[in-house]
Amino acid sequence: MPAAGQPETLGCELPREREKWIAIRANSATVYFWSAPRGAELPEKALPRHPREPRSIGGEAAPASFGLKPRNKEGTISAAEPLPRILIAEDERDLAEMISFHLKKRGFEPGLAANGLEAWEELKSGRWDLLVLDLMMPGLDGWELCRLIRRSEDRILSGIPILMLSARATPEDRVQGLELGADDYLTKPFSLAELGARADRLLQKKRSLEGLQREIEGLRLQITDQESNLREIIHDLKNPLLSIGASAKVLMNRNSDEGKISFLRGIYENSLSMTRWLEELLALSDFSLKSVEKDKEWVDPGSLAKNAADLLRPIGLGKKIEVEFQNPDLLPGLWANKRWVQRAVENLIANALKYTPEEGKVEIKTRLSRKGGEMGVEISVRDNGIGIPGEDIAKVFDPFYRARNARNEKGIGLGLSLVKQVVDFHGGKIEVKSEVGIGSCFSIFLPIGGNGPGNRGEREAS
Questions:
Q1: 435, β-bridge pairs
Q2: Residue 14's domain spans which residues?
Q3: pTM
């Protein structure tokens, strides 16, 4: 510390080609900025009466404006780019103005807030690129302001980079600041050059993230356009396929020649297969969390599973496969999207029928179950078909993936992927047990809907 009454150099030299700016503290409340040629002596006597106004000693007069335009990649000044705006929330006015002065010299546009509430209002009312935040302020301190910012529903405000300043230098304080959402933490006393460098780094990170977000949004729009085009193509293909299948069916009924009937049956079955593939593609492109949540209702899981079994029973009869449905328990209602859950059960049954040989058996069963302490309804589909190799089980829910022993069957590998998405969106679980040559059992667990309107007693009473 300097002797009593002596000025204190704060160590914030701002080098220029022929001169340097020096901040000098005369007492606890006054900071002087000086521009002096290299090697000039510091003032030892009277200081100017206007301490925050830059003065010149033995050299050029202080410039009237310290703002600089940002530099482009070639290192030249770009007048077209707006200056990055940095809000300085610091209750020590002299320190705040010294930081502001330095950030101006680095090409930023600083603003000042004397306390946390003032900073909060500034952040809500204007566009800021970075917040330099002192922790120890009267009223709303830095901890609480940081918490408010990160919990804001305004996506831009909640994502602003925060550089914390504090005299509290313990590791616990740094960890607490970072856990609250600060991007960086600088302890006092600090070098203004380091503060500027850290501000540069945080702003560069912000620009990079914004660039990535723009790229992601561009890709999302491209995907949306492609999905829209795909839906149009699928709809255009479905109509002629349905017409071909219907025509083949009519000709089969009018023909008595077995050779022609076999040929027409192939056309009919292939048109149905291609129509189902197109429907799977449509379902996968239409499926989203929004589509699931929008039409949720109280659903009877037993009736839903029985409807799915009855719908696909004719396919089983065509292969002489027994389709058995069991519903032994009185099941509670599920708060679910009926359309999508039934589609998931239908896909499991259709999958079982596809890979079960003639005269096989498919069992559909519903029951109450408990998983991880949570009550729910389990719907299982068991077959005695070809089974799934152990190394393929973990991948059967991946889009377009097909087990090696299933590639001779027609399909594109989207049915089980859709099942997994439906179950996940309902907060459920799906399990598969299988053995090659023995068969497979797929089970979906859906938790009893505690998040729907009304309780179970009210539903049953109604």
A1: 439
A2: 1-64
A3: 0.47
